[in-house]
């Protein structure tokens, strides 16, 4: 290596290690082999522009642990984040605290509420039209002390009180009411669900579960009231499964369930009426004491059902019999008690559903 100035070393050719470097020592120039310099080199510290480190693991991060040194922060398990320790404190890896490490409002689209407004105890939270959850303490109310639920009122007068009328056809599913917790609570004496068609001063319907004190009897009662006060029991389902009409009304089919049909050609001509009840007008003919039979085709009828017959009208008096019942049909056999006038009698029928097990 030729003699070179120190400033020219940066542009010198690569030192091979077999050459010498002149060093002035005590006014004497000493030639030192380049290869002899390598063992004497030490780790360059941060204060000298180095790192002070001689090895790393994959994922290590360097950070200042003092004002003059650097340290390594080892990587940790997947899913952790690098968290600032604060001014003058070393960083670390860890989980993000949802109460300490966040800012701003988490929107609904990201699983938040979109609001920072504090919720009022007892209010109901619901999705607002603008994509932000809202709360309503005026139309909904829940009092954990009194166990009351108000819909449309903040002053419920019953366990569940809906002040706003429901639209026709609205279905309300109500949970279990009882005295005991668990999967099989007992029904309280007089526990009642009251439904008002318009308001408390007009029509009222109630469903009441009753446990008769001192016995094991339980029953479900259906009550109605014309003025919204003191509804009277109309129907009862006992714990044994019996259905009992307790009001002054009758038990039977309502409007829309029945139908009519008129027999053609002759009094042995079959008719079709797929209704559980209705009226059959017979072909106009003279009455006879000889029994006559015709078939009623009816898809509502099962072979185990019972058919009830009665004469609605007619000049003659008729004896009526059901002489066969099959799936989809039944036979009517009839004859007069002696009348022979020509008439078109009307026979009422009703199907009572039954099973054999």
Structure description:
- β1 and β2 form a beta hairpin.
- The chain is elongated, with a radius of gyration of 48 Å.
- It is mainly beta and 357 residues long.
- It has a five-stranded antiparallel sheet, with no helix packed on it. A four-stranded mixed sheet has the order 17-19-26-22, with no helix packed on it. A four-stranded mixed sheet has the order 18-21-24-23, with no helix packed on it.
- Among the domains are: 35 residues, no CATH class; 65 residues, no CATH class; 95 residues, Sandwich (Immunoglobulin-like).
How does the overall form come out from the CA principal axes? Answer: elongated
Q: Which percent bin holds the helix content?
A: under 10%
By DSSP (H or I, 4+ residues per run), the number of helices equals 1
Under the CATH scheme, which architecture of the domain at 258-352 would be assigned? Sandwich
Main pleated-sheet profile: 5 strands, antiparallel
| Portion in beta strands | 35-45%
- Give unreliable regions as ranges: 176-190
**Distance between the ends:** 116 Å
| Number of separate strands | 26
Supply the helix-strand structural class: mainly beta
Q: H/E order of the elements?
A: EEHEEEEEEEEEEEEEEEEEEEEEEEE
Fold-level CATH name of the domain at 258-352: Immunoglobulin-like
Concise overview:
With about 350 residues, the chain is mainly β. Helices cover about 0% and strands about 35% of the residues.
Question: Any chance you could write out the topology, listing elements then pairs?
Answer:
Elements: E1 20-25, E2 28-33, H1 34-37, E3 61-64, E4 70-73, E5 81-83, E6 92-94, E7 124-127, E8 133-136, E9 140-143, E10 148-151, E11 160-162, E12 191-196, E13 204-211, E14 218-225, E15 232-238, E16 243-245, E17 258-262, E18 271-272, E19 277-281, E20 285-286, E21 292-297, E22 306-313, E23 318-326, E24 329-336, E25 342-343, E26 346-352
Parallel strand pairs: 10-11, 17-19, 18-21
Antiparallel strand pairs: 1-2, 3-4, 5-6, 7-8, 9-10, 12-13, 13-14, 14-15, 15-16, 19-26, 20-25, 21-24, 22-26, 23-24
